[in-house]
Design brief:
Distance between the termini: 19 Å
Order of helices and strands: EHEHEEEEEEEHHEEHHEEHEHE
Number of domains: 1
Structural class: alpha+beta
Strand content: 25-35%
Oligomer: single chain
CATH topology: CNF1/YfiH-like putative cysteine hydrolases
Mean pLDDT: 89
Largest sheet: 7 strands, mixed
CATH superfamily: CNF1/YfiH-like putative cysteine hydrolases
Low-confidence stretches: 66-81
Helix content: 25-40%
Length: 251
């Protein structure tokens, strides 16, 4: 398991990404997976909160706790993703473990130490185009955050040297990013395709939202290059129960 040290060492928050060695085929059984995660993280299963990932721009906020310990779910309706799906989670409740699964997409950890608000976002190319980063920060702002107070960390994801995409995707991003930004995001290849810098796209979105560049950290791990992490591009498929689990929790 990879601890996101930039956050854990400096702030009252837990943040991590699992490695392939942490998972097993037993994880296809929900009970066995939850038992393993509970033992590994020392967090009760009823404190886990998973995103319903659909590569959208939708965000879900957990804003209160019922007396019986189960989370009361308060949805922020942004109307940007498929009905019922959400690719980012936000909370101000301590002890709630917000979780997402990835296999090349970027897990983005966000924390506001001034107001004790945490978030995690599943950032693939589709989610970025649907404003998942800005929408996550918007929900944090509704809970009291000011963007300049947010610190962020990039979890393991496919790097700019390995993420080959089509020209169609580049045209789609041209509607969102300026010509100068597009040059920083896309490097042309001789085969007519491009290499996309996913981290740079997220960085640009964070800066637009008011997050300071000095408050951004990167694990520097490429999920495609490292055999320790799940990669859809490397394997041609990704077992959903062997993907990288990333989580953040307020202490």
């Amino acid at each position: 398991m990879k601890t996101i040290s930039f956050l854990e060492n400096l702030f009252s928050v837990r943040a991590f990404s699992t490695e392939k060695e942490d998972t097993s085929d037993d994880w296809r059984d929900v009970a066995l997976r939850n038992a393993a995660l509970q033992s590994m993280l020392n967090v009760p299963v009823d404190r886990f909160f998973y995103a319903r990932e659909t590569h959208s721009g939708s965000v879900y906020a957990v804003t209160q706790e019922r007396p019986d310990g189960w989370m009361a779910r308060s949805e922020e309706h942004l109307h940007l993703g498929p009905e019922g799906g959400y690719d980012a989670l936000v909370t101000s409740v301590p002890g709630v473990l917000l979780c997402i699964w990835t296999a090349d997409c970027l897990p983005l950890f966000l924390f506001d130490p001034a107001h004790h608000i945490a978030a995690i976002a599943h950032c693939g190319w589709r989610g970025i185009s649907e404003n998942i980063v800005a929408n996550t920060i918007d929900v944090m702002k509704r809970l009291g955050t000011e963007p300049e107070q947010i610190v962020t960390a990039f979890g393991p994801c496919i790097c700019e040297n390995c993420y080959e995409v089509s020209e169609d995707l580049r045209f789609r991003y041209a509607e969102k990013f300026s010509p100068g930004e597009m040059e920083a995001l896309f490097v042309p290849k001789q085969n007519g395709k491009f290499l996309l810098n996913l981290k740079k796209a997220v960085e640009l979105e964070l800066l637009r939202s008011g997050v300071r560049r000095a408050s951004m950290a990167d694990t520097g791990i490429c999920s495609y290059e490292s055999a320790h992490y799940a990669s859809y591009r490397r394997g041609g498929h990704s077992d959903p129960f062997r993907q990288t689990l990333s989580g953040i929790m307020l202490c």
